[in-house]
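Support reply, case 0932

Customer input (verbatim):
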Amino acid sequence: MVEISTSLLSVEKEKSIKVIYDLEVAHTDYYHIDVMDGQFVENNTRELMKSHVEVIKQISNIPIDVHLMVQNVKEYVNEYLDIMPNIITFQYEALETKDAVRKIIDHIKKNNVKVGIAIKPDTKLNEIYEFLPYIHMLLIMTVEPGKGGQALIKETLDKIRTLKSYINENNLEIDIEADGGIKLENIEDVKEAGVDIAVVGTGIIKTDDYKATIRKLKE
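Our regenerated output:
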């Protein structure tokens, strides 16, 4: 059964307490925190995400799934290590060298937080295979990072299938997460491709019954 990480990107600050509480009641598996800096991507969600995290810490024990879409990865990693999330995922493309990637992986793990790498739709899998034994999750972006509400790029599902085969063939213990344009209408395709965790934002937030939607997504 796929797990659901609900993105709070489309949740307004004024409505966050009710939405976060309702998502807990609806049994989301994670809260997905999309941190954007206005540099790596155009959108800037820094203050909104900090506000959402403060609410979560006050009213919920559901794990926090942090996705950093930022240029200065180390700065934001340190900022979010303070909240002790379940996992911090950073964009592979934000770092200039493979040595820098390894250093960030080690830094997060030394602070007893799980680590994930995210890759854009056009980034080749063979660029990141060497890191898979050292991380907990690979996040496949199924849209271009930076904006909510985009349509899922169907070609990324083939990338997920290839990744799943590689993981199985090499006996790796790593989750595959997919993020972007996932909703009830295409969740079966995402599951069939081999995803362990599906990030769903507006596909949950814009529905009338979070509990029913999440149940259908997981079925």
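We compared this against your earlier run and they match. Two observations from our side: DSSP finds eight helices and eight strands in the chain. The longest strand covers residues 30-36. Please reopen the case if you see a mismatch on your end.
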